[in-house]
Design a protein that fits this description.
Elements lengths: L2 H19 L26 H26 L3 H15 L7 H32 L5 H19 L2 H10 L13 H40 L7 H15 L2 H11 L3
Helix pairs in contact: 3-4, 3-7, 4-5, 5-7, 6-7, 7-8
């Protein structure tokens, strides 16, 4: 008998011994390896507290799912990301800087700009709630106040009036009475308009360079040469000479204060 056949017979004998040890007779012996069982199901709630706890878990998971959208729609991220994307297109470098760098720069600048607001939320809402001084409703109201003030400073009255008229809301007496359901979309479209305005101003000097280069190439009879190949180095040189990143980032950050 070959070595391979001997190994097969040995494995078969060991399997038979294990099955015999795991049978009904040996199942009651101590030291026998037993596999755990897992049971999933829905049980009937016996008290209102159990229903409330389940609803709280569902609400928490929903909020965590919507956290990226909340960060984008209620902070300075929208304006920064749109302006940097328009700047990349204006220069003509479609993939430089990469989208990951644009999003990362916008995200870190958002944390820098929103740090006073986040600090107020931590001092006025989060820490008192963790210390047990306020309940959830009071903590939410206190956290919404600094964020509401920030969005109101950046929102145009025309945009806010649009959504409040659609929702048939009465004119608020003060800033605290402005509903977030109308303020958030008004803030977003105001940010988009501001970002598009800045993007238009960024396009103008680079568009002038493209027109000059195209006119020169046409006058020289080089109609088969793409103007973007000639204008791109000049646009990069102009952007570097004026220290474009410093000017744009500095102006963007200062526009929120």
């Amino acid at each position: 008998m070959t070595n391979r056949g001997a190994w097969l017979w040995a494995l078969a004998a060991a399997g038979v011994m294990l099955l015999a040890a795991a049978g009904p007779a040996g199942a009651q012996e101590t030291g026998v390896l037993r596999l755990p069982t897992l049971t999933l199901g829905i049980e009937e709630a016996t008290s209102p507290e159990q229903v409330s706890s389940a609803l709280q878990v569902v609400i928490l998971l929903t909020v965590l799912t919507l956290a990226p959208a909340i960060l984008i729609m209620t902070t300075s991220f929208t304006r920064l990301a749109v302006v940097f994307s328009l700047l990349r297109n204006a220069i003509g470098t479609q993939q430089v800087p990469p989208a990951q760098i644009v999003v990362g720069l916008s995200l870190f600048l958002t944390f820098f700009i929103m740090s006073p607001v986040f600090g107020d939320i931590n001092d006025q809402a989060l820490q008192p709630y963790l210390a047990g001084k306020v309940n959830r409703e009071q903590a939410f109201t206190a956290a919404a106040k600094p964020l509401r003030e920030f969005m109101l400073r950046q929102t145009r009255k025309k945009d806010l009036a649009l959504f409040m008229s659609i929702a048939k809301e009465k004119k608020p007496l003060n800033a605290d009475a402005v509903p977030l359901t109308s303020l958030v979309p008004a803030f977003v479209i105001s940010e988009l308009k501001t970002a598009f305005t800045i993007g238009f101003l960024l396009y103008v000097p680079f568009l002038v360079i493209d027109m000059v280069v195209a006119s020169v190439l046409l006058s020289m009879g080089m109609m088969m040469l793409p103007p973007i190949m000639i204008s791109l180095p000049f646009k990069l040189m102009l952007f570097v000479l004026v220290d474009g990143w410093n000017l744009i980032v500095g102006s963007m950050v200062k526009s929120f204060f």
